[in-house]
Design brief:
alpha/beta, Rossmann fold, 6-stranded mixed β-sheet, 10 helices, binds NADP nicotinamide-adenine-dinucleotide phosphate
């Protein structure tokens, strides 16, 4: 009799209180007819990373996700990186291949897949994108936009952080801008895509926005906020007020998770089905 594999997946990071990953991956397992668990390893101390990663090497785990603040820190425990993880310098997915622990980064592909999905039928009036923030998520976004051929400007409140990120890619189509510039319409009007990678506006600080409420956005701009809680940030409310297209980060979260799941199990889960489950969860949370 063939024994059914029990998939043991998990996530390391800290804090993990509000993570949607267990819901996404349990839904993915159920949808694929697989059984298994997705465990949250909430690790306040970075020294706890090694022992959890070792479970993957010893076969006690089949797949591991990594989130803030350990996406860079975890690299020292791995044997190799995929090209995207290497260029971005951060890992969100770990798998064992030929007895080697490999780190991958599905945030970038998750972002580009979802952007492509949302921009079907949308005409961009220029190939200039503005990225707000220059932290970990910005690295993945800039990497993905570079591959898609965008001319990218990074604006960060610390210009040196934007400059370091820009220089790390050695790419000619990358520029930096002062944070103060982003509220100026004559500056903004050049960009047909705006991506917020800062946590400004994320719960519980839902009254904040990286742009003021009176900033005029150019018609036809697509505004992508990586935040998904709340689903409609103040920035996305501004985008709607300006009649531009507004997208939140839920689809990116879902796409990166589906890509991780495929790396571990070889199964491609239908994203639309998963989106329904997540939307229901978010609606329930909003009602509370
Ligand atoms: P991070 O590495 O800490 O980077 C955050 C960036 O935002 C930094 O450049 C930071 O600048 C800047 N920033 C923070 N507060 C700011 C403020 N008040 N004004 C201007 N800039 C500010 O964080 P991350 O990992 O990139 O995550 C950023 C956001 O993306 C979070 O909301 C996270 O939930 C979201 N995210 C979503 C997904 C998804 O799948 N949808 C994936 C990854 C991340 P300083 O360094 O100067 O503070």
């Amino acid at each position: 009799m063939k024994i059914r594999k029990n998939w043991r997946l998990g996530l390391i990071g800290y804090p993990l209180t509000h993570s949607y990953s267990p819901l996404i991956h349990q839904t993915a397992l159920g949808n694929s007819g697989l059984t298994g668990t997705y465990t949250l390893f909430s690790l306040p101390n970075p020294q706890q990373i090694g022992p959890v990663v070792a479970k993957l090497r010893s076969g006690k785990l089949d797949g591991l996700n990594v989130t803030i603040p350990y996406k860079r820190e975890v690299i020292q425990y791995l044997d190799g990186l995929t090209t995207s993880a290497q260029v971005i310098g951060a890992v969100n997915t770990i798998f064992l291949k030929d007895e080697r622990l490999i780190g991958d980064n599905t945030d970038a592909s998750g972002f580009s897949q979802y952007l492509e999905h949302c921009s079907t039928g949308h005409t961009f009036f220029s190939d200039h994108a503005l990225v707000l923030g220059a932290g970990g998520a910005a690295c993945s976004v800039v990497y993905a936009l570079n591959i898609q051929g965008w001319e990218v400007t990074i604006a960060a409140r610390r210009l040196t952080q934007a400059t370091l990120l820009s220089e790390s890619f050695h790419h000619p189509n990358l520029h930096t801008a002062h944070w103060e510039a982003v509220t100026n319409h004559s500056f903004l009007k050049n960009f047909s895509l705006l991506v917020n990678t800062t946590p400004v506006g994320m719960a519980p600080n839902i009254d904040q926005s990286p742009l003021g409420d009176d900033v005029a956005l150019p018609a036809g701009m697509l505004v992508f906020d990586l935040i998904y809680n709340p689903p409609k940030t103040r920035l996305l409310q501004l985008a709607e007020k300006n009649k531009t297209t507004a997208i939140n980060g839920l689809g990116m979260l879902l796409h990166q998770a589906v890509l991780s799941f495929e790396i571990w199990t070889g199964i491609k889960v239908p994203v639309e089905k998963m989106q329904e489950v997540l939307n229901q969860k978010l609606e329930l949370e909003e009602e509370r």
